[in-house]
Amino acid sequence: MPIRAYPYDWVDAFTKQAFGGNGCVVVHDADDLTVEQRVALVKETSLSECAYVVKSDVADFGARYYLADHEILMAGHPTIATVASLVSRRLVDLSGGQANFTLEVGAGVLPITVVDGADGPMITMTQLKPEFGMPHDPEKIADIYGLTGADIVGTPQTVSTGSAFYITVLKDKSALRRAVLNPEKLYAYAQSLGVTDGAFQEPFLVTLGGETETGDTFSRLLLPPPSPAEDPFTGSATGCMAAYLWHHGLIETPDFVAEQGHWMGRPGTAQIVVLGPRDAPTGVKVGGQGRILMRGELLLQR
To answer: Which residue in 7, 24, 92, 96 could disulfide with 28, CB within 3.0 to 4.6 Å?
Structure first.
Protein backbone atom coordinates (compact mmCIF):
# COMPACT_ATOMS: atom_id res chain seq x y z
CA MET A 1 0.00 0.00 0.00
CA PRO A 2 1.25 3.54 -0.76
CA ILE A 3 2.55 5.79 2.00
CA ARG A 4 0.99 9.21 2.34
CA ALA A 5 2.60 12.15 4.14
CA TYR A 6 0.42 14.35 6.34
CA PRO A 7 1.99 17.66 7.47
CA TYR A 8 1.89 18.21 11.23
CA ASP A 9 2.93 20.68 13.90
CA TRP A 10 3.54 19.89 17.58
CA VAL A 11 2.27 22.95 19.42
CA ASP A 12 2.49 23.93 23.08
CA ALA A 13 -0.79 25.77 23.75
CA PHE A 14 -1.62 28.49 26.30
CA THR A 15 2.03 29.47 26.51
CA LYS A 16 4.63 31.39 24.53
CA GLN A 17 7.54 29.26 25.79
CA ALA A 18 8.77 25.86 24.66
CA PHE A 19 7.74 22.98 26.94
CA GLY A 20 5.08 25.06 28.67
CA GLY A 21 1.30 24.85 28.59
CA ASN A 22 -0.34 21.81 26.98
CA GLY A 23 1.11 20.03 23.97
CA CYS A 24 -0.99 19.04 20.97
CA VAL A 25 -0.11 17.55 17.59
CA VAL A 26 -2.03 19.25 14.77
CA VAL A 27 -2.31 17.15 11.60
CA HIS A 28 -3.26 18.91 8.35
CA ASP A 29 -5.24 17.59 5.37
CA ALA A 30 -6.58 14.88 7.67
CA ASP A 31 -9.99 14.26 6.09
CA ASP A 32 -9.19 10.70 5.06
CA LEU A 33 -7.60 9.58 8.33
CA THR A 34 -9.70 6.93 10.02
CA VAL A 35 -10.90 7.17 13.61
CA GLU A 36 -8.56 4.30 14.46
CA GLN A 37 -5.59 6.20 13.04
CA ARG A 38 -6.54 9.40 14.85
CA VAL A 39 -6.84 7.62 18.18
CA ALA A 40 -3.63 5.66 17.57
CA LEU A 41 -1.67 8.88 17.08
CA VAL A 42 -2.87 10.21 20.43
CA LYS A 43 -1.61 7.04 22.09
CA GLU A 44 1.66 7.24 20.14
CA THR A 45 2.35 10.79 21.32
CA SER A 46 1.23 10.17 24.94
CA LEU A 47 -0.55 13.53 24.75
CA SER A 48 -4.04 14.05 26.10
CA GLU A 49 -5.41 15.07 22.67
CA CYS A 50 -4.49 15.52 19.02
CA ALA A 51 -6.15 17.80 16.46
CA TYR A 52 -6.98 17.05 12.83
CA VAL A 53 -7.57 19.86 10.32
CA VAL A 54 -10.37 18.95 7.91
CA LYS A 55 -12.52 20.68 5.32
CA SER A 56 -15.68 22.49 6.45
CA ASP A 57 -18.82 23.45 4.55
CA VAL A 58 -19.96 25.92 7.21
CA ALA A 59 -16.76 27.61 8.43
CA ASP A 60 -13.43 28.88 7.13
CA PHE A 61 -11.63 25.88 8.64
CA GLY A 62 -12.61 22.61 10.25
CA ALA A 63 -10.95 20.60 13.01
CA ARG A 64 -11.70 17.44 14.95
CA TYR A 65 -10.24 16.53 18.31
CA TYR A 66 -9.51 13.09 19.75
CA LEU A 67 -8.55 11.64 23.11
CA ALA A 68 -6.74 8.30 23.42
CA ASP A 69 -10.01 6.40 23.05
CA HIS A 70 -12.66 8.63 21.42
CA GLU A 71 -13.50 11.96 19.81
CA ILE A 72 -14.11 15.00 22.00
CA LEU A 73 -16.49 17.55 20.49
CA MET A 74 -14.89 20.64 22.00
CA ALA A 75 -11.41 21.15 23.38
CA GLY A 76 -9.67 24.38 24.24
CA HIS A 77 -5.95 23.73 23.95
CA PRO A 78 -6.31 21.87 20.62
CA THR A 79 -8.21 24.92 19.32
CA ILE A 80 -5.38 27.25 20.32
CA ALA A 81 -2.87 24.77 18.87
CA THR A 82 -4.81 24.40 15.60
CA VAL A 83 -5.04 28.15 15.06
CA ALA A 84 -1.37 28.65 15.98
CA SER A 85 -0.48 26.04 13.37
CA LEU A 86 -2.70 27.67 10.73
CA VAL A 87 -1.10 31.05 11.44
CA SER A 88 2.43 29.65 11.40
CA ARG A 89 1.81 28.00 8.01
CA ARG A 90 0.40 31.31 6.71
CA LEU A 91 -3.01 29.82 6.07
CA VAL A 92 -4.37 32.77 8.09
CA ASP A 93 -3.51 36.26 6.83
CA LEU A 94 -2.11 38.40 9.65
CA SER A 95 -0.60 41.05 7.41
CA GLY A 96 -3.07 43.62 8.75
CA GLY A 97 -2.25 42.79 12.37
CA GLN A 98 -5.54 40.99 13.06
CA ALA A 99 -7.61 38.19 11.56
CA ASN A 100 -11.19 37.13 12.23
CA PHE A 101 -12.52 33.81 10.97
CA THR A 102 -14.51 30.73 11.97
CA LEU A 103 -13.48 27.22 12.97
CA GLU A 104 -15.90 24.30 12.90
CA VAL A 105 -15.28 21.75 15.66
CA GLY A 106 -17.42 18.79 16.63
CA ALA A 107 -19.61 20.91 18.92
CA GLY A 108 -20.28 23.68 16.39
CA VAL A 109 -18.71 26.78 14.85
CA LEU A 110 -16.37 28.94 16.94
CA PRO A 111 -15.56 32.58 16.11
CA ILE A 112 -11.79 33.06 16.24
CA THR A 113 -9.80 36.28 16.55
CA VAL A 114 -6.02 36.45 16.18
CA VAL A 115 -4.15 39.64 17.06
CA ASP A 116 -0.47 39.95 16.22
CA GLY A 117 1.72 41.36 18.96
CA ALA A 118 5.29 41.87 20.10
CA ASP A 119 5.21 38.53 21.97
CA GLY A 120 3.54 36.70 19.09
CA PRO A 121 -0.09 36.17 18.05
CA MET A 122 -2.81 36.15 20.73
CA ILE A 123 -5.54 33.67 19.79
CA THR A 124 -9.05 34.07 21.20
CA MET A 125 -11.90 31.62 20.72
CA THR A 126 -15.49 32.43 21.63
CA GLN A 127 -16.87 29.27 23.20
CA LEU A 128 -20.54 28.35 22.91
CA LYS A 129 -23.28 29.64 25.18
CA PRO A 130 -22.83 27.96 28.58
CA GLU A 131 -25.32 25.29 29.52
CA PHE A 132 -25.79 24.79 33.26
CA GLY A 133 -26.71 21.24 34.16
CA MET A 134 -27.26 19.18 37.26
CA PRO A 135 -25.75 19.97 40.67
CA HIS A 136 -23.60 17.38 42.43
CA ASP A 137 -23.33 16.37 46.07
CA PRO A 138 -20.05 17.88 47.38
CA GLU A 139 -19.39 14.80 49.52
CA LYS A 140 -19.63 12.48 46.50
CA ILE A 141 -17.31 14.61 44.38
CA ALA A 142 -14.86 15.02 47.28
CA ASP A 143 -14.73 11.26 47.83
CA ILE A 144 -13.45 10.73 44.28
CA TYR A 145 -10.30 12.66 45.26
CA GLY A 146 -9.76 11.60 48.87
CA LEU A 147 -11.14 14.94 50.09
CA THR A 148 -14.12 15.86 52.29
CA GLY A 149 -17.18 17.95 51.57
CA ALA A 150 -15.66 20.70 53.75
CA ASP A 151 -12.90 21.13 51.13
CA ILE A 152 -15.48 22.23 48.54
CA VAL A 153 -17.00 25.71 48.26
CA GLY A 154 -20.65 25.78 47.23
CA THR A 155 -22.18 23.07 45.07
CA PRO A 156 -20.37 21.48 42.11
CA GLN A 157 -22.35 21.71 38.88
CA THR A 158 -22.19 20.35 35.37
CA VAL A 159 -21.40 23.15 32.90
CA SER A 160 -20.80 22.88 29.17
CA THR A 161 -19.56 25.30 26.53
CA GLY A 162 -19.24 22.41 24.06
CA SER A 163 -17.76 19.80 26.40
CA ALA A 164 -19.18 19.27 29.88
CA PHE A 165 -17.31 19.25 33.20
CA TYR A 166 -18.36 19.10 36.84
CA ILE A 167 -17.05 22.48 37.99
CA THR A 168 -15.82 22.09 41.57
CA VAL A 169 -14.41 25.01 43.58
CA LEU A 170 -12.02 24.03 46.37
CA LYS A 171 -11.49 26.22 49.42
CA ASP A 172 -7.71 26.59 49.05
CA LYS A 173 -4.60 25.31 47.31
CA SER A 174 -3.89 22.91 50.14
CA ALA A 175 -7.03 21.00 49.20
CA LEU A 176 -6.11 21.25 45.53
CA ARG A 177 -2.68 19.73 46.22
CA ARG A 178 -4.19 16.92 48.29
CA ALA A 179 -6.57 15.86 45.54
CA VAL A 180 -5.71 12.39 44.20
CA LEU A 181 -7.98 10.88 41.58
CA ASN A 182 -9.47 7.44 42.23
CA PRO A 183 -10.44 6.32 38.70
CA GLU A 184 -12.67 3.50 39.95
CA LYS A 185 -14.71 5.92 42.06
CA LEU A 186 -14.92 8.37 39.16
CA TYR A 187 -16.23 5.69 36.80
CA ALA A 188 -18.63 4.38 39.44
CA TYR A 189 -20.02 7.88 39.98
CA ALA A 190 -20.45 8.42 36.24
CA GLN A 191 -22.26 5.09 35.96
CA SER A 192 -24.55 6.03 38.84
CA LEU A 193 -25.64 9.03 36.77
CA GLY A 194 -26.21 6.88 33.70
CA VAL A 195 -23.40 8.60 31.78
CA THR A 196 -22.28 6.56 28.77
CA ASP A 197 -18.67 6.31 27.60
CA GLY A 198 -19.26 8.66 24.69
CA ALA A 199 -20.60 11.36 27.03
CA PHE A 200 -18.10 10.80 29.83
CA GLN A 201 -17.60 13.83 32.06
CA GLU A 202 -15.37 14.58 35.02
CA PRO A 203 -14.74 17.21 37.70
CA PHE A 204 -12.58 20.26 37.03
CA LEU A 205 -11.01 21.46 40.27
CA VAL A 206 -10.42 25.19 40.73
CA THR A 207 -9.29 27.58 43.45
CA LEU A 208 -9.65 31.33 43.54
CA GLY A 209 -6.29 33.09 43.37
CA GLY A 210 -3.58 32.38 40.82
CA GLU A 211 -0.24 30.67 41.19
CA THR A 212 1.48 33.89 40.08
CA GLU A 213 0.76 37.53 40.87
CA THR A 214 -1.07 38.00 37.56
CA GLY A 215 -3.39 35.00 37.95
CA ASP A 216 -6.91 35.04 39.38
CA THR A 217 -7.69 31.30 39.36
CA PHE A 218 -5.66 28.11 39.49
CA SER A 219 -7.00 24.73 38.40
CA ARG A 220 -6.26 21.03 37.94
CA LEU A 221 -7.79 18.34 35.74
CA LEU A 222 -6.82 14.86 36.91
CA LEU A 223 -7.43 12.25 34.22
CA PRO A 224 -8.21 8.51 34.29
CA PRO A 225 -6.45 6.01 32.00
CA PRO A 226 -5.74 5.80 29.10
CA SER A 227 -5.08 9.56 29.22
CA PRO A 228 -2.04 11.06 30.99
CA ALA A 229 -2.55 11.42 34.75
CA GLU A 230 -3.03 15.19 34.61
CA ASP A 231 -3.79 17.78 31.94
CA PRO A 232 -1.39 20.75 31.91
CA PHE A 233 -4.02 23.22 30.65
CA THR A 234 -7.66 22.60 29.79
CA GLY A 235 -9.18 25.39 27.73
CA SER A 236 -12.67 23.92 27.38
CA ALA A 237 -12.98 23.30 31.12
CA THR A 238 -11.60 26.79 31.79
CA GLY A 239 -14.47 28.27 29.76
CA CYS A 240 -16.99 26.21 31.76
CA MET A 241 -15.30 27.23 35.00
CA ALA A 242 -15.41 30.92 34.05
CA ALA A 243 -19.15 30.74 33.31
CA TYR A 244 -19.76 28.99 36.65
CA LEU A 245 -17.77 31.54 38.67
CA TRP A 246 -19.48 34.49 36.98
CA HIS A 247 -22.94 32.95 37.18
CA HIS A 248 -22.63 32.12 40.88
CA GLY A 249 -21.07 35.44 41.91
CA LEU A 250 -17.68 34.02 42.86
CA ILE A 251 -15.77 36.58 40.78
CA GLU A 252 -16.33 40.33 40.79
CA THR A 253 -15.68 40.99 37.10
CA PRO A 254 -16.24 38.83 34.02
CA ASP A 255 -12.65 39.23 32.81
CA PHE A 256 -9.75 37.54 34.56
CA VAL A 257 -6.58 35.48 34.12
CA ALA A 258 -6.77 31.69 34.52
CA GLU A 259 -3.68 29.62 35.33
CA GLN A 260 -3.00 25.88 35.27
CA GLY A 261 -0.09 23.47 34.98
CA HIS A 262 2.47 25.31 37.11
CA TRP A 263 2.83 22.42 39.58
CA MET A 264 3.63 20.15 36.65
CA GLY A 265 6.41 22.41 35.39
CA ARG A 266 4.24 23.35 32.39
CA PRO A 267 2.75 26.75 33.27
CA GLY A 268 -0.20 27.83 31.17
CA THR A 269 -2.19 31.07 31.07
CA ALA A 270 -5.48 32.15 29.50
CA GLN A 271 -7.18 35.52 29.20
CA ILE A 272 -10.88 35.10 30.00
CA VAL A 273 -13.96 37.23 29.34
CA VAL A 274 -17.44 35.89 30.17
CA LEU A 275 -20.08 37.42 27.92
CA GLY A 276 -23.55 38.42 29.08
CA PRO A 277 -25.16 38.97 32.49
CA ARG A 278 -24.61 36.73 35.50
CA ASP A 279 -28.05 35.15 35.26
CA ALA A 280 -27.69 34.29 31.57
CA PRO A 281 -24.12 34.19 30.18
CA THR A 282 -24.08 34.09 26.38
CA GLY A 283 -20.54 32.84 25.73
CA VAL A 284 -16.99 32.79 26.99
CA LYS A 285 -13.91 34.23 25.29
CA VAL A 286 -10.81 32.17 26.06
CA GLY A 287 -7.53 33.55 24.76
CA GLY A 288 -3.98 32.23 24.74
CA GLN A 289 -0.82 31.82 22.75
CA GLY A 290 0.71 28.83 21.00
CA ARG A 291 4.36 27.87 20.55
CA ILE A 292 5.34 25.68 17.60
CA LEU A 293 7.74 23.12 19.06
CA MET A 294 8.22 20.60 16.24
CA ARG A 295 7.19 20.24 12.62
CA GLY A 296 7.26 17.33 10.22
CA GLU A 297 5.27 14.70 8.32
CA LEU A 298 3.12 11.88 9.60
CA LEU A 299 3.71 8.87 7.31
CA LEU A 300 0.83 6.39 7.08
CA GLN A 301 -0.24 3.72 4.65
CA ARG A 302 -3.34 4.46 2.60
So the answer is: 7
